[in-house]
Amino acid sequence: MTSGPFLKNAWYAAALGEELSETPIFRRLLDEPMALYRGASGRAVALYDRCPHRFAPLHKGQVFGDDLRCPYHGLRFAPDGACVHNPIGEGKIPKAACAKSFPLAERDGIVWLWWGDQPVDESTIRRWREFEDHANYRAVQGYIKVQGNYQLVSDNLLDLSHAEFLHPYLANEGFNRRTQYSMEQAGNTVIARNWRPNEPISQLFAFAYGENAPSHVDHLSIVRWEAPSTLRLEIGVTRVGQSPEEGPRSYQAHLVTPETADTCHYFWKWGRDFKLEDEEFSVRLQANMQKAFETEDGPMIEAQAQYMDGQSLESLKPVLLLTDSASLRARRVLQQLIEGQNGS
């Protein structure tokens, strides 16, 4: 039993593709302990991280081909969880010797976990084709674990007004006063738009333009949230009055997966269509973005969770601002989906 409730029959990010190798890792996802690894064939595998024999942690075992061997008594389990080798005695395999296997699919450098009891539908995986288009885009990525409920991270991303105060290198003083904010819902997708015409250019986009950077730009950011906690963020600037397609843009994936009801995993990928050959910039960008999440967003969300002291957002009756509308709508959509799956 999970301590959720979590939305079932949905895709959750389990890992970044480069995290997985023939050395298994442990990760608790949706309150399920899992051993994650990549087999010799390149296939990503997720098995319940407890051997059915003497309950040893499978992630401490060794990969043989695509199979995982228990570190305690050597039972081997295939990617589908079936025991395929017993080194003890005559090698008879007990019928109950199987480990639960979780469906995975890998797209755009992201390993997705299907969590639910309905048939897997890979067509519903959120795509970021920019991450695979190396001719036109470059991407950096990172991961942090957050001591807070996963919806708090979604709240943070759907309301970018905090950038003025937490990320001054990304936003200028007073930029919230200059923002034209709007929110809409399309099906179960919640979209938050922030439009800032004639905005003083930030340090990041001044670097993107180089020596001919304008002093002011039209700045647009669009956040698209999809249940349960998948967010696409696009940020672009143009010279004042130009079409949005004419300036540098970034394309970001922010993927939040519950570890438990009170902790979560946060995966991010940050793609760009400028300075494609500047590897030094990629290294600095990755370090700066990771630092921002580790030392700015993360600690604030964790402090928020601590001060909420296990109480729900609704029960605390928060004061509401204009820019809260998208996060509140996303919470409402998710709650309705969860209630629908539970027959409430």
Automatic annotation (TrEMBL):
The keyword Iron-sulfur applies. Pfam families: Rieske, VanA_C. It is an enzyme of class 1 (oxidoreductase). One of its GO terms (molecular function) is oxidoreductase activity. SUPFAM superfamilies: Bet v1-like, ISP domain. The keyword Iron applies. Its EC number is 1.14.15.-. Residues 11-113 form the Rieske domain. InterPro entries: Cholesterol_7-desaturase (IPR050584), Rieske_2Fe-2S (IPR017941), Rieske_2Fe-2S_sf (IPR036922), VanA_C_cat (IPR044043). It comes from the Bacteria. This is Dicamba O-demethylase, oxygenase component. It comes from Paraburkholderia gardini. The lineage of its organism: Bacteria, Pseudomonadati, Pseudomonadota, Betaproteobacteria, Burkholderiales. The gene is ddmC_3.
